[in-house]
Amino acid sequence: xxxxxxxxxxxxxxxxxxxxxxxxxxxxxxxxxxxxxxxxxxxxxxxxxxxxxxxxxxxxxxxxxxxxxxxxxxxxxxxxxxxxxxxxxxxxxxxxxxxxxxxxxxxxxxxxxxxxxxxxxxxxxxxxxxxxxxxxxxxxxxxxxxxxxxxxxxxxxxxxxxxxxxxxxxxxxxxxxxxxxxxxxxxxxxxxxxxxxxxxxxxxxxxxxxxxxxxxxxxxxxxxxxxxxxxxxxxxxxxxxxxxxxxxxxxxxxxxxxxxxxxxxxxxxxxxxxxxxxxxxxxxxxxxxxxxxxxxxxxxxxxxxxxxxxxxxxxxxxxxxxxxxxxxxxxxxxxxxxxxxxxxxxxxxxxxxxxxxxxxxxx
Length: 363
What we know:
Elements: E1 4-6, E2 12-14, H1 16-34, H2 38-45, H3 48-59, H4 68-98, H5 108-117, H6 132-150, H7 154-173, H8 183-186, H9 190-198, H10 200-205, H11 214-230, H12 232-240, H13 252-255, H14 258-273, H15 277-284, H16 286-308, H17 312-317, H18 319-352
Antiparallel strand pairs: 1-2
Helix pairs in contact: 1-2, 1-3, 1-14, 1-15, 1-16, 1-18, 2-12, 3-9, 4-5, 4-6, 4-16, 11-14, 16-18
């Protein structure tokens, strides 16, 4: 999504704090995958993926696309084509190198069907499991756009969105992967996406956020930080039960409250940071980092065992090793991100034969 917004005064601004927030978020994702300790990944699993749905809601602007066709084309360019390319790359890598080594047996046909079905990490989408988020976000945005454009009253919109959320929770309760494109996974997170959309004007479009006093922001963060530190072990326990990709949730009254508090905390921290080139770079390249880091992390883990004799369990259960693994995984992603950014405009031109090429095709 484009992070350039025209504010109330007509000024075009790069939303630096959102790039920073996305950068922090992708670091959390990589570390959560590298660390299996409850006090490490448990806390992050509580909110790290719903954070991205919240940000996506902030950046969604249906008014920019008068017709569903225009919106669909934009989503194909920014989400679906990357999903297809990333999936095929991960699938080929899994098929040639990792298939015989992974613990869950998935047939090559089922693995390929994941490209089209995009659901159930232990069957169809397993060769590129993290990509459930990309195809799920695409499906959720299309559904949300249809609801916004197809209804005029927020009472009706709220009722439809609540019904869809309830359907998603019911399917999750019985672990029924009956919907394509990871809709099973994303329907329960509609409240987070909707909250981001409703906060778009004050947080993104208005000039207020650009003139907010850091002292006031810091004052608002104090109780959030105090609560997080005070209840950290308890929150980690909730996070240990949360895995949206596998339809696993804690008690719903906690799932729809605690993550909002943590999102608010890190949103405020990002506003305090304001500008930070490394984090902003990470935030602008979340999709390729999301796609490439799992196989890279597995290669690095294998190499650590081969060269230094450090076991997989030892790496994933030690803070120091898992932090090194996360950092090394991100560093190794850098050349792949560079290649992706160079290649992707050409892919778009090839697919659309030069027609309707957007000014900024990168997600």
